[in-house]
Amino acid sequence: MVCKDCENNGVYISLSGRSLCPRHFKRYFETKVMRTIKKYDLLRYGEKVLVACSGGKDSTALLNFLWNLIKNKNGGIAAISVDEGIAGYRDIKLRGIVKFCEEREILIHIYSFKEYYGFTLDEAVKISKENKLDLKPCYICGILRRNLINNVAKELGFSKVATGHNLDDEAQTIMMNYLRGNPSLLARLGPKTGVVSNEGFAQRIKPFYFCTEKEDTIYALLNGIEVDFVQCPYHVENYRLEIRDFLNRLESTIPGVKHGLVNNFLRILPLLKKEFSASRVERCKICGNPSAKNTCRACMIKMKLEPFLKRVD
Amino acid sequence: MQLHFINVAGVNSMRIKAFIQRVGETKLVDLDEGSRVEDLLKVLGISVSEVVPVKNGVIVTEREILRDGDEIKLLSVVSGG
Q: Does the beta carbon of A247 lie under 8 angstroms from any beta carbon of chain B?
């Protein structure tokens, strides 16, 4: 199918039915991202941004986009990758992102759970199962990774942490929190996260917020980024997986349903933020980071695992 | 490598070789002549929003018309983690 704007073959058909060739698809994608950045004031001239890179296509494509946008301007950009210690998974992903950064001379900071917390995710999951601690792999991973990246961003003086979250991710998270009845967690979503501005948090921004996972993939491929498929071994235990498949099935019969879900959510987000902005933010009594309770979730996880850690050694 | 055969074609058929990245499987699918990528996806039970089709090494849309002997890679857009 020929591109709507030229004679070349299309690589993508938009929701409105427009076929786009590689050149016009890139323009469509980049315009959408720039509009998101401007509309939601995600980045300002001279700001330092740390890009959280898992080694997957979304975050690598985001790093590529922001690097091209910022590299010759004031401020600064660097990548951060976290090795959680998932044998046969993260090590493969990390090799790819390190190579990508080396080729472009992008500064990359690599941290591991083992060095930072004293245990790998594999070890934490094993301890949790054996001792019935009821700590799910994705919960441990998500909380500890965010905590680590936030701490490093503050230490290194980055005001923003950019993540490769896309429209599919956001639609899934909205649906998950609706179904679980977590309105306070819904209030933390959006292109720019956080309910209460707090100096303890580096603000997290999502420039690919309105791009679908499919658009991210095509953009990555057109920029020479390898799109492999290495499945996290803990993925099967993930509630998100069921929601994702449900939304994709719905999208096949009702095209645009994910856009609708996210756009309608954004209309009520100001009300949610207002409702939950009164929530007091305390300081964790252990690490001093902002927390809804007197001990933050990262320290809670560490406290639960600590008595059993010697057995791993 | 194990190959799976699927035949949903009428009299004038063509054979397509489809590699599904997410499950690491290759399938040989017989379709009616003039079928498009979206017809192949329907037979395989895959949503258009879940894959990027690559025909003979080039990214194509779901409206692309297939020819006998075409090799299609269906790259997963879903992240693995």
A: no
A248 → closest Cβ in B47, B63, B64: B47
The pTM for the full model equals: 0.90
Which among A7, A51, A5, A60 has a CA at the least distance from the CA of A27? A5
Which residue is closest to B80 within chain A, CA to CA?
A231
Structural domains in chain B, sorted by start? 3-76 (3.10.20.30)
A40-312 placed in CATH 3.20.20.150:
no
Taking only Cα atoms into account, the Rg of chain B, rounded to an integer number of angstroms, comes to 12
**Local structure of residue B56 (DSSP, 8 states):** T
| Contacts with B59 from chain A: Cβ below 8 Å | 11-12, 22, 218, 221-222
The closest alpha carbon to A227, from A214, A212, A242, A210, belongs to A214
Q: List, for residues A169-181, the tens digit of each pLDDT value.
A: 999 999 999 998 8
User: Which residue among B58, B61, B80 places its CB closest to the CB of A229?
Assistant: B80
Counting beta carbons within 10 angstroms of the beta carbon of residue A87, is it exposed (0 to 12), middle (13 to 18) or buried (19 or more)? exposed
Task: Count A/B contacts: CB-CB distance under 8 Å.
Answer: 77
Nearest CA in chain A to B60: A11
pLDDT tens column, A290-310: 887 889 999 999 999 999 886
**Residue type at B78?**
V
